Each structure stands twice: as structure tokens, then as C-alpha cells.
Fold Iron complex transport system substrate-binding protein.
Amino acid sequence: MDLSFARLRRRVGLAAALLGLAPALLAAPICVIDDAQREVCLQAPAQRIASLSPGATELVFAAGGGERVVAVVAFSDYPPAARALPSVGSHSRLDLERLLSLQPDLAIVWGSGNSAEQIDALEDFGVPVFYLEPENPEGIAQAIERLARLSDSQAVGRQAAEHFRRGMAELAEQYRDAEPVTVFYQVWNKPLMTVNDAHLIGQVIRLCGGRNVFAELPRQIPRIDIEAVLAANPQAILAGGMGEENRYWLTEWRAYPGLQAVQQDNLFFIPPSLVQRPTPRLLEGSRLLCESLETARARR
């Protein structure tokens, strides 16, 4: 074979090989803005996701990336498939050694819940970090869409986000002109804690035609005392509890028969995971909350 021809063939072969690699080499990174307003870029869709709060876990699954989750934290109990995944501690204290051994290529973190020091450590080890902290219903829908982009499941994420948006819009329309009901929402018992109107739960109360008696307090989750609740005298008391079926917080309010909410039996239990996690299940929790306030209206 002519030597010059052989060289030419090798060059052509090399060029063809490089052209074959070109799409992968030139593929644009996947970039999204997280809730800390940082641009997070991946060279390819995430394949091994560490979800470091129960709410983040629900959102990743809703976005269609559940099969890519390799690590969760305590209380990541929904959907049921999440319970079988390896746990790497709690949202406030991670087992970093165990987490890193699972080789995540993306960590979904809770900015106000996860340890800032441990988040920094993850980044030091080269793990891309996506901050997630939806502050309103639209933020939940957008979180689903962004997570779907990072996990290459846009069709699933788009459908889930639109279903959530549509459901919340329908509730807003249904209760737009509802007669107001004054409401106390109990987040915790000892110390006694509630929400203001900036909190996601406060927004849902307002959507349902409720008037949060502690709407104007400066902190999103303020501590109060029983005397403040008695002085506000709400027409309805809503509470979660230390579990999905634990209603004893409401029972304790029956010791105060002078309260309007007690007199009219407007003590309503809302499973905490439905309203205290910023996830698509907020739609279900919002429906329950709206129905509770509608019952209170009927009991006047």
C-alpha cells in the first residue's frame, strides 16, 4: 500500500472519530438557578442524587428523578419507595463519610435546615450542590421543573408542576370570596409555635379565606404563649402534631372552653407532612385546610 495513502486513511479515520465524539465534547452543560440564586451546572444529567431533606426527596421523586436517588435522610418517608433508600443521617447532622461513599454526583440541600459547614464540606469534595427552599406554591412548581431538568426527566416534571399549579389555582378561585375565619395554626407545642403570613402555611390559610391571628409577627415561625392565643380568640385552631395521626395537641385546647374554636368544635387536625413540607402534597394539605375552614363557617 502506498505510504502516503495509508497516512491519509489514518488521518481520515481520526477525523471521523473526532467528529463522532463532537456531540459529546460540545454538549452544553445543564445549568439551572437554585434557591440560593446560584447557577448550578452539570456536564450530564445527574445519575446519583443525594436528597438531604424529606421535602427534597419528595420533590425529586415528583420530578421523575426518584430512580436516581442514592441517599436520603431521616423521615424521608414519601413516596414509600424512599423508605428503602440508604439513610445518611438527619438533615441537621449528616454522616459525611457514608454519604461520600455513595458517590453522589448531585446533592439537593435544604439551605435553612442542613448544616452550612457540612454543605461546604460536600462542595470541597467536589459534589455539586443545589439549594432548595421553595417559599410559595409557585416556588414548589418551579423546583419540580428545575429538578426534572437536572435529572433529565422534563416531561414528568412538567406534568407534575402543571398539575400542582392547576390545583392550587382552582382552590384560590373556589375560596376567593369566602367569608373570613380567624385561624390559629399550631406548628409545635413546647415551645408553642405558629406561623406568620409570609410562611407557606400562612399563604395557604389566606388562600382558603382564613385570617391568621398571628399574621403580622416578624418571624416566619414565631414562639408565642397560651395567653396570646386566648387573647386572639380564634374561630378555628389547626394543628399537625408529632406524627401523622397524633391529635393530642388539639385535645389540650379543650382545657380552655372560653375559646371560640373550642365552643364551636373547630379543632382541626392536618397531617403535618401535607402542609409543613414544601412539596406537591401541599395541594392535598391545602384542600384539607380549606375544607376545615368551610366546616368552621358552617358552624357559626
Observations:
- Confidence is low (pLDDT under 50) at residues 1-25.
- Strands lie at 30-33, 39-42, 49-51, 69-71, 106-109, 129-131, 181-186, 210-212, 236-239, 267-269.
